[in-house]
Amino acid sequence: MSRLFQKRLADKLHPGDSIVSLAFLASLAIQPANGAELEVPDAWLKPAQTASQLGITSFSQSAYLDNRDLPPVEERLPDDPIVIVPLDSIGTYGGVANITHEDRGMFIPPEGIFTIAPDHKTILPNLAESYAYNEDGRELTITLRRGLKWSDSHPLTTEDILFSINDLQLNKNFMPVTLPDFIGLEVIAIDDRTFVFNFPSPEPFYINYMAQSPEYFLMPKHYFREFHPDYADEEVIAERMEELGFSDWSAFMTTSMQRRLFPDLVNHPTTSAYKIESLTPGLYSYERNPYFHKVDTNGQQLPYIDAIEAQDVREPEIAVAKASTGQLDFAGVRLPTQDIPLLKLGERTSGIKVNVWNRLHGSDLSIQANMNFADEQKRTLFADVRFRRALSMAINRNEMNDIIYFGRGTPRQVTVVPGSDYFEPEFATAWAQYDTDAAEALLDEIGLHDVDGDGVRELSDGSPLTLTVEYVDTETPKQISMELVVSYWNAVGLDVRQRLIDRELQYSRAISGELEMTVWHADRTTDVLFPINPDFWVPRKLAASLAMWSEWSRWYLTDGNLGEEPPPEIRQLQLWGDELATTMDRDRRIEVGKLILAANAENVWTIGTVGLAPQPVVTSNRLKNVVESGLWGWDIRYTMPYHPATWFFDQ
Amino acid sequence: MSELRELTPGQLAWLKFRRHRLAMIAAGSLIFLYTIAIFCEFISPYTPEQRNSRAINAPPMDVRFFDAEGQFNFRPFVYDLELTINPDTWMREYEEDASTAYPIRFFTRGEPYEFWGLFEAERHLFSVDPNGPGYIHWFGTDSLGRDVFSRVLYGARVSLSIGVVGVGLTLFLGVLLGGFAGYLGGIFDSAVQRMTEVLQSIPTLPLWMALSAALPAAWSPITTYFGVTIILSLFGWTTLARQVRGRFLAMREEDFVVAARLIGANDQRVVFRHMLPSFSSHIITTATLAVPAMILGETALSFLGIGLRAPVVSWGVLLQQAQNYQVIVMTPWLLLPGAFIVVTVIAFNLLGDGLRDAADPYSSLRQQ
Amino acid sequence: MRNYLARRLLGMIPTLAVISVLVFIIIQLPEGDIVTSTLDRLSATGVDLSDDRIQNLRAQYNLDQPLPIQYLGWIGNFITGDMGFSYLFARPVNELVWERIGYTLLITVCALIFTWVMALPIGIYSAVRQYSIADYSFTTIGLIGLATPNFLIALVLMYLGYSWFGLSFGGLFSPEYLNAPWSWERFTDMLSHLWIPVVVIGTSGMAITMRLMRANLLDELKKPYVTTARAKGVPPLKLLLKYPVRIAINPFISTIGLLLPALISGEAIVGVVLNLPTTGPLLVQALIAQDMYLAGSLIMLLSMLTVVGMLLSDLLLAWVDPRIRYERT
Predict the structure, then answer these.
(1) Model pLDDT, residue C48
(2) Does the beta-carbon distance from B111 to A5 stay under 8 Å?
(3) DSSP code for A216
(4) Which residues 6+ apart lie within 8 Å of A486 measured at CB?
(5) Which of these, A81, A199, A190, A200, lies nearest to A142 by C-alpha position?
(6) I need a labelling partner for C114 at 20 to 30 A (CA). Which of A39, A170, A190, C320 fits?
């Protein structure tokens, strides 16, 4: 199609649109863009107080646990349990929550040694009573609370911590390649409650890591020792493995670790508010954990809700249908932004409430051109900053915001959330303006001209130029966004092919550098993860989400043995990244973080579209104490700061 | 005494076909649909990728002859749509604004397009003034503001042609393999029989999926289209082969075949020159009945996301983008491609029925 | 009869062998495999993919062997009843299949019965009252059922099921009965959900079967013996059922063989849309993730079911029609 009438098509945007959007926005109450202005109890932002500090002396339990031959609740709770202040009101016990299988990690967030506060920055002690770093940040001493127990009544002590680290993470049979955060780690038990981590280099943010990935540190020793070659007889293990259907214990442990996010082996002891009662294809049944360690301000042991039925709903369509018709008490993860109208329709007829949270994704799309791609011509092209800037300026983000996000998202580049200490407004707006003239000028400058007059630019040597984008349409509305993005790029004369691929293929190809261009979403944008995982801004990791510089990452990870040495400005990023994670000087830390983000903003190594998008979180009208508008994302394990254990049914 | 008319077998078949009313209607519909597909650029007012940001998820527009005051207009028109966003449901809602009307002109200049990619043109069957602010969306628009009517028409070209092209390949394979199996017999026959048995036992969808997943992403839409077509037709030849084989087995002993062999005709000549024409009508019928399976197959694959994909527009792709509860409840016009698929498939089936009855030498012209 | 059975059974073996090879080849076609994806899941947590790690795992899963050896390993296990380990679900395939095969069979058989129960009388009626309005209507309805894509019908029916009858969306059971022990209520709950997939899958087969029945019966009705019987005054219904229908049923029985693959295939998509606990959705996921053991074993299993089904229908046919028994294959 000739460029001439492509331009005419693009000009179809009328000024009337933005006015309509503005009017729409003005007619609603203004919602916080990133949850920073969310109203929560003050107590949630500080380390939780304990029962003795608040003068609570008597405790009670749910009637569900009566007549079950359990020790009295005082003995099941830790010696001085922490108290969680409910959001709105003290809850009543009872009820069974119907959710989907996919939402179980949201309804039952992990309970770890540390937890994350709703300001998405502060790390608070949880199972830990206290902690302290030494001066240079290489030593972290943690004391667990007294009297903690697993869900099967077995005490939780430093033995479990040591087992998790020494016998699993650092065990070469189980993990032939140690996870980066455990390399060189030494753990020493002082007594059964206190232990010390010794790091090879300063780790001021190790508590962030522990809060965000708690399961690595809390594998119950008394349960898993039966499967561990160092503790159990090999024949017995082989038998058990055969029973369970695994080829060997390493595969079994890997699976347990993969499933670490949602341990769902029956009898697997846990610290979470719920434990698995039964597992069938189609349904996961959870019941309350009698040894859960938290209480409310009246001394009632949490959680309030007695049981959870998590249905296996494979098709997202069915999850949406169920949510919109009130068949689910809580739904979030399978609900796409696009379906908010249908869900809102359900508000009137089906007894549900559609809470609109914001995804913490800095941008729903992180468009990545692989600068380490095998094809020489493409690689040179992608490495040219003018090309990336042109691609970025050709995108009409405001229109995308209107069409896909009902005007409620924020057009921006891939950068941290506004509430972050490292944020500067120019990081979000750099090269994000919609300027097709400037984009075309840059493309001309690079030498991409339309030689044969067919409306499509060719490479400077005259050979045809076709860009191929392969991606997985998951978690954010990528497909519909890319349809628009491709049309914008077509309008400046670029021929683009796109294809949806399967998740597994995305993983393998991104890591091996075989993807020419791909699209991911950009989380790790809060201060919980940014300092330790600035993956979108520093090439230091191999992952499905980071296809733009896998060879440079590989160089970094293997100390130069594999991969490609990065150019100086990229190498500088890696050095800054190291400094960010290890410096104990707070001011320097902020400075370095901003240097990283500024470099990324200038160079547009990945292109963003719209971020902080509206995410529907549907709750039944009977479900109380749920925050109306929070941040939704991996960084904070979706609901961890919002205390789902205090959610209850108003009977 | 009146002269006895002699009718050729072809004319006889035509007469019989004409009496099968449903088949006639079906044939007519198919001709109509294929014409639309051939001339889709001309007939649709927009191109399939064109977006109208002022009409996102707009319902089908009413084409009127009578205006708000009850006056008849010779030239049909549509009213402008006023857009409000419902604060409760966040949905766009449209109401006709009777103060602004956009007349529909015929054979007029509209949005530019390329006819079959060969030459540029601007004339459309109908359109509203392209330089003005008006628009016509007879079937409504989708979530990106694209005209559903145009997309359905462009989709017709792809979906309808896949059926025909795919069936061609199936025909070729079926007749070739079945014919030689029946004629030559022996090992070749057993091998083909075994092959048919095997292929008929394997569930088709998984095979299609596995093969589709192997198509490289970098292939152009056209190449992917042919790839999908080949995959769809690769397993459909078995029924035809079986039937052809049966016929050949029977016919092998027929006098005219023996005579041909005695004269010295080689196998190839016997098969193609003598045996094949005697049941060409049967082949045509089977082919006609095989097209719907192709069309439905493409729809199924595209629905699962592994057949044709955007930017190719086919009915299957359109349905894949519309399989959504929100669509059923709030924007059901996006399911119109489904209606087209139903009509096409039914039409092919009825046509095949009619052809079969018409070609059958034992069915009588007389009503029972 | 026994001879025939023996011959057919023996004939099945080479067929199944060829099927297994074909299935294996097709599964291997797409690039990538489940191991790299398992590793990559780990790498998403920051693990580096060093080559020896990859090699280790591939050796563990037999993927460093040449293809023919892998094939033999797979088929060897399959024959002894071990369908391998699914890395997608981290469970033995046997377990996964066993949980679901019952429902798959149930739905397929019900769909088959539904097709028969609907198509048989309608086909007969259409043949007897040819060209009547009812004939045309039935043909049309059958065609519409045939023509509408399965998933579309499934989606719409599921929505109607909710808005008219308050049925919970998808699945075979309402949430409260998912794990409950079998009881009358559970059974009726299942029936109330079962009708949707059965109708959806069955309608596509219905049209063909209906027309087949109609065509066959029409052929029979033209035969002289029918005219004779009518002339002799045999009552119409008895006349109809005693001879023409019984003979017209013969090819009807052989349609089981043709219907089975279509039903199983249709069940795959419908199962995905309706979220059924059957093998269909499992297969779709396995294919997308290239979990070879799961996908290959499932397809093999389903093909075996089809072959057995075809055998049964042929046996039925042979039992009913003696001519077949003595036919040289």
Answers:
(1) 42
(2) yes
(3) G
(4) A469, A496, A498, B311
(5) A190
(6) C320
Domain co-membership, B327 together with B240: yes
For residue range A86-133, list pLDDT tens digits in order: 999 999 999 999 999 888 889 999 899 999 999 899 999 999 999 999
Domain boundary among B102, B118, B146: B146
Strands (E), A297-435: 307-311, 330-331, 352-359, 363-369, 410-411
Confirm whether B6 is domain-assigned.
no
Query: Looking at the partner chain, which of A317, A509, A558 has a beta carbon nearest the beta carbon of C48?
Result: A558
Prediction ipTM score: 0.77
In a domain, B205, yes or no: yes
Please give the torsion angle defined by the CA atoms of residues A280, A286, A287 and A292, in that order, rounded to the nearest 10 degrees.
140
Q: Give me the pLDDT at residue B276, please.
A: 66
- What pLDDT shows up at residue C251? 63
What is the spatial distance between Cα A137 and Cα A199, in angstroms, rounded to a whole number? 8
For chain C positions 110-149, those within 8 Å of chain B (CB to CB) are 130, 136, 139-140, 143-144, 146-149
From the list A119, A35, A34, A37, the residue with the least C-alpha distance to A612 is: A34
Nearest to A127 by CA among A168, A82, A175, A95: A82
pLDDT lower than 50: segments of chain C: 40-51, 53, 328-329
How many A/B residue pairs have CB atoms within 8 Å?
A: 100
Residue A314's alpha-carbon distances to A23, A283, B2, B355, C171, in angstroms, are 38, 12, 74, 44, 10
Is pLDDT at A29 greater than 50 in this prediction?
no
Q: Do B130 and B272 reside in the same domain of the chain?
A: no
Residue C167 to residue B300: CA distance in whole angstroms = 26
Quick check: is B199 in a domain? yes
Tell me: the pLDDT tens digits for B242-267?
A: 777 777 776 767 777 777 777 777 76
Cα-based distances in Å from B108 to A134, A233, A633, B43, B104: 81, 86, 52, 11, 9
Which range marks the domain in which residue B92 is found? Answer: 50-146
Any residues with CB less than 8 A from the CB of C290 and at least 6 apart, and which?
A: A502, A504, A505, B213, C27, C30, C32, C33, C34, C37
- Provide the domain count of chain B: 2
Is there a single domain that holds both residue B135 and residue B178? no
- Flag whether B43 is in a domain: no
Threshold 0.95, pTM exceeds: no
pLDDT at A301: 94
Each residue's pLDDT tens digit, B37-64: 999 888 888 888 888 888 889 999 888 8
Same domain for B233 and B215: yes
- What mean pLDDT do residues A333-341 have? 89
Q: Do B188 and B130 have their domain in common? A: no
Residue B52: C-alpha distances to residues A399, B141, B309 (Å): 11, 8, 22
Residue with tokens 């300092």: A531
- Domain with residue B167: its CATH number is 1.10.3720.10
- C158 neighbourhood in chain A, CB within 8 Å: 318, 321
Nearest-neighbour CA in chain A from B308: distance (Å) = 10
Question: Of A406, A505, A420, A364, which is closest to residue A27 (Cα–Cα)?
Answer: A406
Tens-place pLDDT, residues C252-290: 666 666 677 777 777 777 887 787 888 878 887 777 666
Chains that touch A (3 or more CB pairs under 8 A): B, C
User: Are B302 and B343 found together in one domain?
Assistant: yes
Answer for the pair A457, A491: CB distance below 8 angstroms, yes or no: no
Q: Of the segments A169-178, A423-432, B112-121, which one has the largest average pLDDT value?
A: A423-432
Asked if A298 has any chain C CB less than 8 Å from its own CB, the reply is no
Domain end position, chosen among B107, B130, B146: B146
Residues B142 and B157 in one domain: no
Q: Which of B54, B218, B329 sits opposite A17 (nearest CB)?
A: B54
Give residue B320's pLDDT.
Answer: 84
Six token digits for residue A364? 């729903």
pLDDT confidence of residue C8:
77
Who among A1, A342, A480 is closest to B114 (CB)? A1
Indicate whether B140 and B167 sit together in one domain.
Answer: no
